[in-house]
Amino acid sequence: MTFNLATWFVDRHLEEGRGEHTALMTGERQVTYAELAALVNRTGHVLRDLGVRQEERVLLALSDGVEFVATWYAAQKIGAVTAEVYTFLPAKDFAYYLDYTRASVVVVDATTIDRVREARLELGDRPWPRALLAVGEVGELREGEESFDALVAQAAAVLDPAPTAPDDIAIWKFTTGSTGMPKACVHRAETPLRSFEHYARGVLDLREDDLVLPVPKLFFGYARDMAALYPFGVGAAGIVFPERSFSDKVFDLVARHRPTILVNVPT
């Protein structure tokens, strides 16, 4: 039996006639499931061309946005393993995550690239990561760094999913580090689906007309699930934004988008 997270949570909506439904809202932009699926496929080709193989880690040190979501699903579609870190960590913490995950590719942006570069230097002659994939404008790229925008623009919009199985490792989710340095909790590919079935449907009763705004950032698994996994299970939409979650920003987003569900950190 095969099961691919990107196929079920993204591609399925095209097959079932929801390609023009909104999947993500960011700023004044609305991204449809069809647009997201194409970006996922293009990004999947880029990751493969950079040498990411099935079961290798892809580390996202990236601000919230459509590119974050697309890269997360692209890694899943090619059978890689996703891990995410907070964007405002010091370089020494980035070095820890680079070495811990041994990620073949780290996805960065203007917020994180300088500290990730410094972290790379701290690792010395370690063979990982092989490449930094930089989203947006980051200035002049260095050796071992590639432009996400340039490579995605040249990539094909069609991509066959990797033949992943429900028991394959799909996600490394980091603990808070309250008992030492953060450690990865390993999740199988079917875990998000079971979580969706039992929590998003069984408890929250998410519907196709819902619009979800998470207050925490996407590196936090609950926020990522609420913005770009649980809504996708029913063809609904999530709101993503790159800024930090200060109260005035959240109130502005609520006034602008009128979400049906507002998500804070669970206690």
If you had to describe this structure to a student in words, what would you say it looks like?
This protein has 267 residues and is of the alpha/beta class. It is built from ten helices and twelve strands. The protein has a seven-stranded mixed β-sheet with strand order 7-6-5-3-4-8-9, sandwiched between helices. Helix 3 links the parallel strand 3 and strand 4. The longest helix is centred in the N-terminal third of the chain and has 17 residues.
List keywords for this structure.
267 residues, alpha/beta, seven-stranded mixed sheet, five-stranded mixed sheet
Indicate the topology.
Elements: H1 5-15, E1 22-26, E2 29-32, H2 33-49, E3 57-60, H3 66-77, E4 81-84, H4 91-101, E5 105-108, H5 113-122, E6 131-134, E7 145-147, H6 148-154, E8 169-174, E9 184-188, H7 191-201, E10 211-214, H8 221-228, H9 230-234, E11 237-239, H10 247-257, E12 261-263
Parallel strand pairs: 1-11, 3-4, 3-5, 4-8, 5-6, 6-7, 10-11, 10-12
Antiparallel strand pairs: 1-2, 8-9
Helix pairs in contact: 1-2, 1-3, 2-3, 2-6, 4-5
